[in-house]
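Quick review question:
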């Protein structure tokens, strides 16, 4: 996760109320900003949590599940382009659904995320 909060993200930080934070929290906090699709995104980041060993960001909208472009936009606000983060589909018995239009990005603090060979996704250079 980025060490310093990008200006675009910091300017959209929620500074009042139950989810308020300020610059001292770095990339942790609640942020509301317009995404690349023109929709308002509500983002909650716990930042690096050494107690549990994960970096975590949740993304929600008022009416729709966030799309791929929005999730990529948020990923690049919090992590460098070459960092690998993931969305998880846990066993149904482990589902937690506090918001019907929310997706999450995760990165373990210790260890790399294993990736399949690129060819299993498709040939490179195709769009």
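Suggested answer, residue by residue:
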């Amino acid at each position: 996760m980025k060490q310093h909060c990008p200006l675009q993200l910091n300017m959209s930080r929620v500074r009042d109320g139950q989810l308020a934070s300020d610059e001292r929290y770095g990339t942790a906090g609640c942020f509301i900003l317009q995404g690349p699709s023109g929709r308002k995104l509500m983002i909650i980041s716990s930042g690096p949590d050494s107690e549990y060993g994960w970096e975590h960001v949740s993304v929600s909208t008022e009416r729709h599940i966030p799309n791929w472009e929005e999730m990529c936009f948020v990923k690049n606000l919090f992590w460098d382009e070459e960092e690998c983060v993931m969305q998880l589909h846990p066993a149904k018995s482990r589902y937690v659904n506090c918001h019907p239009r929310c997706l999450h990005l995760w990165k373990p603090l210790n260890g790399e995320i294993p990736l399949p060979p690129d060819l299993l996704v498709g040939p490179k250079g195709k769009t």
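Why it works: DSSP finds two helices and four strands in the chain. The chain has a mean pLDDT of 92.
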